[in-house]
Amino acid sequence: MNSFCELIPFLTLCREYPTREWNLTDFEIGRPLGKGKFGRVYMVRTKCEPKYILALKTLYKSEIIASRVEKQTRREIEIQQNLRHPNIVRLYGYFHDEKRIFLMLEFAGKGELYKQLSKYGRFSERRSARYIDQMADALSYLHSKHVIHRDIKPENLLLGITGELKIGDFGWSVHAPGNRRMTLCGTLDYLPPEMVEGKEHNEKVDLWALGVLMYEFLIGKPPFEDRMSVQNTYRRIAAVDLRFPASFSLEARDLISKLLKYIPDERLPLSEVLKHPWIVKNREKTKESV
Ligand code: AMP
């Protein structure tokens, strides 16, 4: 099927929403914020009052088509435009011209979380707990809307102007149940055993990824990483070969162990993550220091 057909009816339909029809001349274009797979992201300001600052993401239609991700892109937009949560980048609207699709995104003022992690090597327990707390809250909201994220990793997380975590990428998310086949590209590090083994999966994949994320925040690298061999990473994930350095607090160790369970149903539910002593203790400390 011609891929343009995938995109056009959807975009035409969405011209009704939001009520205002936008185009590129409505914005003053500022500095580039980054480069994605299908185009650049710019800081922009609306010309009309009140002058909102936004991140404008451009996606080249030709590249979306060449990569055969029309459906995925459409799903990403559909999902993100319906989400409203302080720890999820808001999609305010979108428009297109002949060559490009433009996404009007909430501006995440402090940029990529990944850069911070690379800069500092690892995060303190308090900072990691704050992020995991925010992440668990955002995932709990997503799951209540029957959305599975499926691609949680530091590269997909941004930071708001007050340093709050924001999930910024919905490229792999699906409406539950998410048992469709995925092309596994990129890193295996965040995939749960059921996905590396090609089995059916559900929203519990995000609980596993939360455990991996927590480990990476505290140590600076994911728990099953093996830079020499993908097969070895695969084996370590399937065997849940989890090793903790001595520096890990017992509470952090406890939470990670409860998330990284081979059997999806045995993973600690998000409501319990939010009540876990490691999260609560660090939440209290953060409150005291404000
Ligand atoms: P992406 O195409 O989503 O991978 O975005 C490419 C880069 O643009 C990211 O790595 C960020 O540095 C930047 N970026 C994307 N979205 C935003 C946003 N909402 N606010 C600030 N920077 C962003």
Question: Roughly how much helix do the residues carry, as a percent range?
Answer: 25-40%
What name goes with the CATH superfamily of the largest domain? Transferase(Phosphotransferase) domain 1
CATH class of the largest domain: Mainly Alpha
- The fraction of residues assigned to DSSP E strands is 15-25%
Query: Which cofactors or ions or other ligands sit in this model?
Result: adenosine monophosphate
What ranges have pLDDT less than 50 throughout 5 or more consecutive residues?
1-19
Shape: globular
User: Termini distance?
Assistant: 56 Å
Q: Give the SSE string.
A: HEEEHHEEEHHEEEEHHHHHH
Number of E strands: 10
- How many structural domains in the coordinates? 2
Q: Which structural class do you get from the secondary structure elements?
A: alpha+beta
Q: Can you tell me the CATH topology of the largest domain? A: Transferase(Phosphotransferase), domain 1
Protein name: Aurora kinase
Active site: 151
Keywords: ATP-binding, Kinase, Nucleotide-binding, Serine/threonine-protein kinase, Transferase
Pfam families: Pkinase
